[in-house]
Amino acid sequence: MSTRLGYVYGIGAYLCWGAFPLFFMLLAEVDPLETVPWRVLTALVFCVLAVGAARRFGPVLAVIRSPRTLGWLAVSAVLLYVNWQIFVVGVVTGRIIETALGYFINPLVTILIGVVVRKEKLSRLQWVAVGIAGAGVLVSAIAYGQFPAIALGLAFSFGLYGAVRKQASERIDALTGLTVETMFGAVIAVAQLLVVLALLGHLGAFSHGPSVTIPLLLSGVVTAVPLLLFGAGNRRLPLSRMGFIQFLTPILGFLTGYFIFGEEMTAARWIGFVAVWAALIVLLIDAMRALRPRRRRDGPEPSPATGEIATRPIP
User: Fold this and answer.
1) Where are the residues of the annotated region Disordered (predicted)?
2) CA-to-CA distance for 184 and 44, rounded, in angstroms?
3) What is the percent of the chain with per-residue pLDDT over 70, rounded to a whole number?
4) CA distances (Å), 219 to each of 35, 36, 61, 164, 205, in order?
5) Residue 256 and residue 233: Cα distance in Å, rounded?
6) Could you tell me if residue 305 is inside a domain?
7) Strand, coil or helix: what is 303?
8) Least confident piece of the model among 51-55, 128-132, 221-225
9) 150 belongs to a structural domain
10) Chain centroid to CA 174
11) Which listed residue, of 30, 200, 269, 281, carries a Cα 20 to 30 Å from 287's Cα?
């Protein structure tokens, strides 16, 4: 049951993130250096209200009293803030397809972290898929003709975030973790707003009318919901499997950039993306093969990444 819930939460999170370009294009008139701080601050307000409604201030205080867990969440908060800033800059500057490339690279980073750091094992077909996707990403990156800073920044910031967050999320629930993360993020947000104010002499985020102000105020809720889903899924699934689910986000981002916003796709880019999609087909074949033996026997559910019996408790 724990693993099945992990899939539900993980897929829900990445579907939400896949729709983010559509939402943040509503805020294109706002300076991205203001968008992210207000996004963090409104997310903190949402989390505090949610903690209060659930009467879960006790777990938050317990985390604050634990230096080790607090340290992990401080690091994950910085990585998350960096990821948000890079993504918003990419979307509002018309580089949605490059953000999609970043999230195609991201699962590879997550998978490799799972293998190298946590010693998670991959099947033969999963290694084949990693190789195909890696080749496709390389071709796509070369096709840009310049260093893909947006893509690589997104990939490594969120890949590292997932690994760091897992260290803390095995000890705390998703809402508690996100609340503490946004507390740390709020410090960065306020500092960034003060820098913008000092440089520009004013803050103009809320001067664009209700069509911009309302989405900006809702950005905290829109941000928090998929992160809560991600935190819940990350507790229940191996990093390698979360890495495979992450492909949902770049697929939706690519479709949004190409079909809705009309961003250009060269022949070389097409080759790269088709290679990545071929890797997804390999993963699908591997998943179907893994399901067959499970249907033929009764007993504990195997871990999706290793085939071994899952031992983590059901919370």
Assistant:
1) 295-315
2) 10
3) 88
4) 9, 9, 26, 24, 13
5) 25
6) no
7) coil
8) 128-132
9) yes
10) 14
11) 269
List the domain range (segments joined by +) for residue 40: 2-293
Q: Specify whether the CB–CB gap between 21 and 81 falls below 8 A.
A: no
Distance separating the N- and C-terminal Cα atoms of the chain: 10
Residue 294: pLDDT band (50, 70, 90) is low
- Residue 112 lies inside a defined structural domain of this protein: yes
By three-state DSSP, how is residue 237 classified? coil
Compute the distance between CA of residue 76 and CA of residue 165 in angstroms, rounded to an integer.
6
Largest CA distance in the chain: 68
Residue corresponding to tokens 């087909």: 281
- Residue at 108 is within a domain: yes
Please tell me the total count of domains within the chain. 1
Greater pLDDT, 74 or 163: 74
Average pLDDT, the chain: 84
